[in-house]
């Protein structure tokens, strides 16, 4: 028996490795929070109170306060729609060990209808106790802000395969057109549902553990507005492979209707 792979099998093996690197890494439910390392590749520390709407979720994802009792996150961070008291949201602190942090349990998960692992990567988590003292992050309801420079933030890995961060990190990344992004990802990119961002040369990006967190920018009045939800990418911060984010404007009406149905 020959030990090496036939050429077609090599192709299959290479494709399998490539797919594995195309990281939709599903966070393990209720993983405990590691307490060291920075987050967001190429990022710097966010100041306490700089992004009051940022939420850390116990399954190892990010999120944003949409209303007093609803957190907008990624569908791939949660299970199916229904009552759910298994998630803990940490709010009000850039340092996950801050004694002043506030931790609130979930009571319901609403995952985007039709979510099947490709596109539609959004979900709402309802909290047991409302958060009244922190600013919320409004979502973009048109494509007007799907351009320019975006801010990304999270407690995820600071390099591929790296540990999660104790401190909230932030970075800026430029918009990448569907055309250019499609050159990298081909049919994996759902252009109408996803928006890409990153530098041609790489170096700055969201990474594992940042999923579900917001990508945002300033609106015409200088207020923060959410344009994306961290979703996926090929590795992290690689040249030629931008980060892929849920295009919030595409789902704004659905998110609004879902929020209303959840009493949020
Ligand atoms: N899917 C990842 C997560 O669950 C986010 C990956 C973002 N990757 C990227 N290259 N921008 O945390």
From TrEMBL:
Keywords: Disulfide bond, Hydrolase, Protease, Serine protease, Signal. Coiled coil: none annotated. One of its GO terms (molecular function) is serine-type endopeptidase activity. Pfam families: Trypsin. InterPro entries: Peptidase_S1_PA (IPR009003), Peptidase_S1_PA_chymotrypsin (IPR043504), Peptidase_S1A (IPR001314), Trypsin_dom (IPR001254), TRYPSIN_HIS (IPR018114), TRYPSIN_SER (IPR033116). Residues 1-31 form the signal peptide. Residues 40-260 form the Peptidase S1 domain. GO terms for biological process: proteolysis. This is Trypsin.
């Amino acid at each position: 028996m020959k030990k090496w792979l036939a050429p077609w099998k090599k192709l299959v093996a290479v494709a399998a490795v490539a797919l594995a690197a195309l990281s939709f890494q599903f966070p393990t439910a209720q993983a405990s929070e590691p307490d060291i390392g920075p987050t967001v590749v190429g990022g710097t520390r966010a100041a306490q109170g700089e992004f009051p709407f940022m939420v850390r979720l116990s399954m190892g994802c990010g999120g944003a306060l949409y209303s007093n009792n609803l957190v907008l996150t990624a569908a791939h961070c949660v299970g199916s729609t229904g009552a759910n008291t298994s998630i803990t949201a940490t709010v009000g602190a850039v340092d996950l060990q801050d004694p002043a942090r506030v931790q609130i349990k979930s009571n319901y998960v609403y995952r985007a209808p039709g979510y099947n692992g490709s596109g539609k990567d959004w979900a709402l988590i309802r909290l047991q106790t409302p958060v009244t003292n922190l600013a919320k992050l409004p979502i973009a309801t048109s494509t007007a802000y799907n351009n320019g420079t975006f801010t990304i933030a999270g407690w995820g890995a600071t390099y591929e395969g790296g540990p999660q961060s104790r401190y909230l990190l932030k970075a800026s990344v430029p918009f990448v057109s569907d055309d250019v992004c499609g050159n990298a990802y081909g049919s994996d990119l759902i252009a109408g549902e996803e928006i890409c961002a990153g530098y041609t040369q790489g170096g700055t990006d969201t990474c594992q553990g940042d999923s579900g967190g917001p990508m945002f920018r300033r609106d015409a009045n200088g207020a923060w507005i959410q344009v994306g939800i961290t979703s996926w990418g090929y590795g992290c911060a690689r040249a030629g492979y931008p980060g892929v984010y849920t295009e919030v404007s595409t789902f704004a009406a659905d998110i609004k209707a879902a929020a209303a149905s959840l009493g949020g």
